[in-house]
Amino acid sequence: MTLDVSGAGGDRGGYLHDGGTIMLTGGSVTTSGPGDYGFLFLAAKDVTNSLGLDGTVVNSAADAFAVQGGRADITTTGATVSSNNGILLSVAQTSAVTMTSDHSTLTGAITTDSSSTSKVTLGGGTIWNMTGNSNATNLTNNASSIVVSAPTGDPTQLASYKTLTVVNYTGSDGHIALNTYLGNDNSPSDRLNINAGTATGATTLTIHNTTGPGDETTANGILVVNAINGATTASNAFALQPGELRAGAYDYRLFQGGIGGSAPESWFLRSDFVTPTPTPTPTPTPRRRLLRPPRQRQCRPPRQRQRQRPDLRQQNYQPARRPTRYRPALIRSSGRRLPPTASFSQLPGSSASRPWAR
């Protein structure tokens, strides 16, 4: 079913009164006139109106759900609900509301006046985009996320941030995303206020830094969960995700209680100065010398020097002349002594070619 309501104002997509029931599967409900509610609930005291949305898309000009008397039981499964005036659920005029959302996406603020009560349960991965200050009597976050929208003004001023105030908060693997200006103890932040009730279970907090430069906290720190009017919080009710934040040269961690025992049930972000670790000079990698294999010397056979005999014919070689003069000697021939000037040819019976002397 698709319902589109556009009027002069004061209309509504659905009207439940005196015990009425509407159950929608799929489809969409859209209102666009000024002041047009998505659904309006009216009933006498202790009379319950019931609304069920399964996969339905609701977009309204005014409050998506406006309960103005009696009891209301609202259930959304796989639904998407938003409003143009920023109000998801308004509870007023001594009303009592129970809203249960499963696998749904909800956008807007929840407001409960002092005469009324509201019990809100988020489950199955529901995402509630909280766009304005909200308050509820009891809030259960079961494996779902509450995401607070970014500050609308100066991020250094507390008035730019939002608060979620509940009497009792229960987390079961729940998650809350807050915006914080990470600076000194007086820095502003979105806050979860526990007013005269309890905070139990387990919920992780994600902090988005809104341009804070980081600074030293010397007192309690930056307040993010405020236990007021005697409220108490379990020691494991909240944890920072990841375990620490970094802004400038400071690390922030989440602590329960203030310094010296003050505000023991509230939760704060406190900073520590981090000394920068000098970047070590990289050790140069030694150059590897490539070892060449030794040269294989080739053993050459020794050169055989050949003696070259001169060519006597080319050099006009002439044999040396034999000396013709000798010292006196005894010649074994005829028994005579030759004179020094005698030649061998003068010997009787001698041969010039075969001399014999001594």
Commentary on this structure:
- The protein has 358 residues and is mainly β.
- The protein has one domain (2-273).
- The chain is built from no helices and 27 strands.
- The protein has a 22-stranded mixed beta sheet that branches.
- Strand 25 and strand 26 form a beta hairpin.
- The model is unreliable at 329-334 (pLDDT under 50).
User: Strand share of the residues?
Assistant: 35-45%
Total strands: 27
Structural class: mainly beta
The total number of structural domains is: 1
- Report the mean per-residue pLDDT as an integer: 86
Provide a count of the helices: 0
Helix content: under 10%
Report, as a whole number of angstroms, the end-to-end distance: 159 Å
Q: List SSEs in N-to-C order.
A: EEEEEEEEEEEEEEEEEEEEEEEEEEE
Q: Shape from CA axes?
A: elongated
Largest beta sheet, briefly? 22 strands, mixed
Measured on Cα atoms, how large is the radius of gyration? 57 Å
In short:
With 358 residues, this protein is an all-beta fold. It is built from no helices and 27 strands.
How are the secondary structure elements laid out?
Blueprint lengths: L1 E4 L6 E6 L3 E5 L2 E4 L5 E6 L5 E7 L2 E4 L4 E4 L2 E7 L2 E4 L3 E6 L3 E7 L2 E3 L1 E4 L4 E7 L3 E4 L3 E9 L2 E4 L14 E18 L10 E5 L2 E12 L12 E7 L3 E2 L4 E3 L4 E3 L2 E7 L10 E7 L85
Parallel strand pairs: 1-4, 2-5, 3-6, 4-7, 5-8, 6-9, 7-10, 8-11, 9-12, 10-13, 11-14, 12-15, 13-16, 15-17, 16-18, 17-19, 18-19, 19-20, 19-21, 20-22, 21-23, 21-24
Antiparallel strand pairs: 22-27, 25-26, 26-27
